[in-house]
């Protein structure tokens, strides 16, 4: 029935597919991603792709780890790109599997350009970014018309492992009502201090979402001033995202996972009396 509605593209030998694995829960894979897993000869996966997703690969598929972890020995990006090219030139159907979406802080663009330079055909299969799907799972909407009309995605970790100097933190503090910060736990204290120094309220709501969409998902609600200390006390570990802004208050009414466990939700978390 599905095949009658969807025409799955052929995964040709000697090609590379850059595929988003979504935020973690294998149920949030796209149909194209699932089909690619079944067809691939080699799956080159990153550190954010969990075992339940990898278990969906074909029985004969070779699984190759090519993940990066801050502060730990990791494959260098040029080596990963070269490996994709080499596998494709061997006539393999190469699936490069990335957490979230390949083009959202996933270096998918760098790998795709390396394939172009080598003359390797490729396809991109978008995935649900953790910055969208992970927050929805945690009960936090990215936008809400009574709160914000803009949101900014930013990384808290440069290629060198530092706070990115190329990011204008002062401009973000003043101009974006909601910030979603990836790869931030290591530098959360410094980034919070920069945002507060640029004018963000110290008591602004913050949520830290770790292992989003997975059974052991953890969500910590705190404030901008207390976020780093709260994360240490809770012993939160990557992968984790931080969302800064008034939309965090909406979790009191939208924590659907909590409701399944018995939490009583607030239909008016902003105290607006139901306006809007």
Please give a structural write-up.
- Keywords: Cobalamin biosynthesis, Methyltransferase, Porphyrin biosynthesis, S-adenosyl-L-methionine, Transferase.
- Its EC number is 2.1.1.107.
- Residues 15-227 form the Tetrapyrrole methylase domain.
- It is an enzyme of class 2 (transferase).
- Pfam families: TP_methylase.
- The protein is an alpha/beta fold and 276 residues long.
- The chain folds into two domains: 2-128, Tetrapyrrole methylase, N-terminal domain (Cobalt-precorrin-4 Transmethylase, domain 1, 3-Layer(aba) Sandwich), CATH 3.40.1010; 131-260, Methyltransferase, Cobalt-precorrin-4 Transmethylase, Domain 2, CATH 3.30.950.10.
- The protein has eleven helices and ten strands.
- It has helices at residues 2-5, 31-39, 51-54, 77-89, 108-118, 130-137, 169-175, 188-197, 227-234, 251-254, 256-260; strands spanning 15-20, 42-45, 62-65, 93-98, 122-125, 152-155, 179-182, 205-210, 218-223, 240-244.
- The strands form two sheets. A five-stranded parallel β-sheet has the order 3-2-4-1-5, with helices on both faces. Strands 6-7-10-8-9 form a five-stranded mixed β-sheet, with helices on both faces.
- Strand 2, helix 3 (51-54) and strand 3 form a beta-alpha-beta unit.
- The longest helix is centred in the N-terminal third of the chain and has 13 residues, at 77-89.
- It is globular.
């Amino acid at each position: 029935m599905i095949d009658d509605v969807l025409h799955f593209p052929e995964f040709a030998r000697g090609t590379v597919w850059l595929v988003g694995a979504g935020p973690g829960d294998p149920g949030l894979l796209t149909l194209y991603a699932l089909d690619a897993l079944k067809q691939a000869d080699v799956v080159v996966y990153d550190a954010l792709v969990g075992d339940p997703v990898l278990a969906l690969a074909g029985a004969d598929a070779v699984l190759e780890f090519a993940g990066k972890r801050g502060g730990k020995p990791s494959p260098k990006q040029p080596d990963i790109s070269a490996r994709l090219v080499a596998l494709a030139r061997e006539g393999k159907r190469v699936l490069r599997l990335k957490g979230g979406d390949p083009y959202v802080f996933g270096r998918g663009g760098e790998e795709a350009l390396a394939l172009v330079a080598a003359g390797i055909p490729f396809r991109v299969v978008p995935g649900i970014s953790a910055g969208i799907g992970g927050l929805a799972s945690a009960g936090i909407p990215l936008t809400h018309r009574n709160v914000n009309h803009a949101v900014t995605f930013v990384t808290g970790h440069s290629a060198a492992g530092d706070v990115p100097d190329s990011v204008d933190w002062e401009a973000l503090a003043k101009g974006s009502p909601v910030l979603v910060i990836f790869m931030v736990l290591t530098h959360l204290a410094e980034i919070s201090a920069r945002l507060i120094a640029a004018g963000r309220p110290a008591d602004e709501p913050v949520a830290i979402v770790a292992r989003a969409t997975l059974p052991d998902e953890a969500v910590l609600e705190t404030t901008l001033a207390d976020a780093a200390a709260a994360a240490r006390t809770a012993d939160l570990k990557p992968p984790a995202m931080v969302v800064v802004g008034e939309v965090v208050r909406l979790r009191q009414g939208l924590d659907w996972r909590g409701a399944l466990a018995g939490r009583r939700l607030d239909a008016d978390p902003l105290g607006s009396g139901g306006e809007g």
